[in-house]
Structure to design on (536 residues):
């Protein structure tokens, strides 16, 4: 031990793991909320900054791209500057970016400030996961990941509801300003209650000293090109017809080439910026990959349901958020219980139960119609909330179980990246599917919409009579009835598209079960051990 470590007092106050958890959860929760809260305010922001529909999407795209660029570099930054410093610096960047976003008066400024926000948020989630991993004793790892899971999953669930309430009652800038007091409180608590583990700190200093003359700048550059291009492709693909767009095709090809070059670079350089060698551990690899698939389904589901409720059932943003709230509440209640069960039951069993419950809930959601109400939605969502609790806790805990403590930040950065990219892939794919399925359904319905069918003729006569009763002449009433019938057909085709997409989501998720063969559970801890505190 060098002087820096020996100078640490032999007796120090024991870290309160619950205060550490609360301190670092503020940043993760805000970052997760901000990934979705802006979407409900885009119409108001668009009017305020004078942007087109195509231009305004850069507010979300810029944040998402910046977020994934930082996640895998969290460990690299932590070795050079210290995990606590990195977390606090990124939290400050996020707070400053939030303030600037609220003050922005042009689209260019807002996009730049959203990128700053994204850079700040990128390190918060993996750093929290690493700190919790180091703070809780081995037999409490499932509890730690349960607490982390609540913050990660609450963000996408609360974002649209909170954003809708703010937009309905206040100026859109408050979706950014609300981060300031919460962020400052989190910053104060991290400074006060989170302290660096001297053993990990010393290891990071030694590793940083070895890397100092061998910084993997080429690996970092390839990583940024790869992630930036692929995330842009996923964000913009559905809006620009995927490979029908020459620009997106070039972006995708460049992203793939950069990804391949990055992988080769990281496996061949002695001091990689991102330690991909962690994937040689089948436990980490299986847990991380299945976790990415889980988030693809989770975020796609969180994206689809509000669209269904608002565009087809006529819910407001706040109403749809309140309808989704039971899923969040049951998830919060179930996550700690799953954390306790984890030490008693094989994680494969828990994940299998979660997969089956999610598939069943998707089948239930496929029965929604235009006459469905909140009660028809809440039932399947309660099942889904328990399902996600059964999935997140064991997958996150298992994936990190064999990772050495000093490699926790490397592993959590990759783990967070795969979840984020999985969510982006899920939203992109299912958004594209819903359009295609609705078009197919429309074609099938149109073939049946002929006036020679008695039920169609009867419906037309009823509509024409209703419009004539309002004072329209025969010709105008006929035209109005035709438009009404066309609108009904379009609505029904979208409903049928959602029905198919929910069935496909449930069926695809069943593919996780065969993958559980590769989910190798670690050896159980021998018994309770003294808490390992992270004096970060």
């Amino acid at each position: 031990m060098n002087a820096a470590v020996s100078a640490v007092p032999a007796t120090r106050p024991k870290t309160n793991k619950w205060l550490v958890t609360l301190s670092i959860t503020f940043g993760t929760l805000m970052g997760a909320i901000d990934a979705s809260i802006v979407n409900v305010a885009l119409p108001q922001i668009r009017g305020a900054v004078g942007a087109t529909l195509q231009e305004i999407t850069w507010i979300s795209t810029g944040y998402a791209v910046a977020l994934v660029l930082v996640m895998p570099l969290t460990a690299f930054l932590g070795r050079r500057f210290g995990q606590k410093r990195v977390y606090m610096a990124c939290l400050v960047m996020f707070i400053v970016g939030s303030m600037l976003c609220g003050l922005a008066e042009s689209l260019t400024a807002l996009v730049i400030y959203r990128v700053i926000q994204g850079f700040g948020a990128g390190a918060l989630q993996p750093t929290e996961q690493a700190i919790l991993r180091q703070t809780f004793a081995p037999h409490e790892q499932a509890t730690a990941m349960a607490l982390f899971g609540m913050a990660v999953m609450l963000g996408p669930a609360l974002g649209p509801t909170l954003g809708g309430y703010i937009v309905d009652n206040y100026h859109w800038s408050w979706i950014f300003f609300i981060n300031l007091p919460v962020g400052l409180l989190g910053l104060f608590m991290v400074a006060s209650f989170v302290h660096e583990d001297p053993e990990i700190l010393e290891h990071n200093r030694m590793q940083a000293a070895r890397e100092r003359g061998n910084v993997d700048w080429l690996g970092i550059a390839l990583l940024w090109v790869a992630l930036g291009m692929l995330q842009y492709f996923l964000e913009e693909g559905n809006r620009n017809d995927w490979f029908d767009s020459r620009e997106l095709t070039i972006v995708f090809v460049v992203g793939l080439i950069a990804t391949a070059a990055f992988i080769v670079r990281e496996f061949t350089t002695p001091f990689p910026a991102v330690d991909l060698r962690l994937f040689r551990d089948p436990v980490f690899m299986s847990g991380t990959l299945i976790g990415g698939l889980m988030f693809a389904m989770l975020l796609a589901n969180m994206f689809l349901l509000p669209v269904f409720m608002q565009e087809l059932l006529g819910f407001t943003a706040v109403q749809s958020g309140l309808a989704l709230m039971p899923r969040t509440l049951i998830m919060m209640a179930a996550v700690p219980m799953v954390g306790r069960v984890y030490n008693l039951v094989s994680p494969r069993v828990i994940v299998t139960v979660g997969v089956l419950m999610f598939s069943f809930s998707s089948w239930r959601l496929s029965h929604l119609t235009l006459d469905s109400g909140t009660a028809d939605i809440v039932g399947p969502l309660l099942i889904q909330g328990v399902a996600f609790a059964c999935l997140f806790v064991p997958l996150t805990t298992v994936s990190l179980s064999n990772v050495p403590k000093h490699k926790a930040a490397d592993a959590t950065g990759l783990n967070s990246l795969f979840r984020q990219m999985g969510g982006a892939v899920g939203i992109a794919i299912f958004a594209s599917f819903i359009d295609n399925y609705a078009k197919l359904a429309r074609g099938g319905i149109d073939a049946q919409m002929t006036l020679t069918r008695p039920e169609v003729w009867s419906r037309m006569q009823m509509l024409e009579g209703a419009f004539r009763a309002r004072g329209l002449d025969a010709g105008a009433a006929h035209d109005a009835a035709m438009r009404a019938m066309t609108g009904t057909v379009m609505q029904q085709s979208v409903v049928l598209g959602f029905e198919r997409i929910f069935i496909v989501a449930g069926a695809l998720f069943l593919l996780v079960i065969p993958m559980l063969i590769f989910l190798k559970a670690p050896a159980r801890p021998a018994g309770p051990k003294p808490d390992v505190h992270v004096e970060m």
Notes: The chain has two domains: 3-215+271-438+507-518, 216-270. DSSP finds 23 helices and no strands in the chain. Confidence is low (pLDDT under 50) at residues 1-13, 525-536.
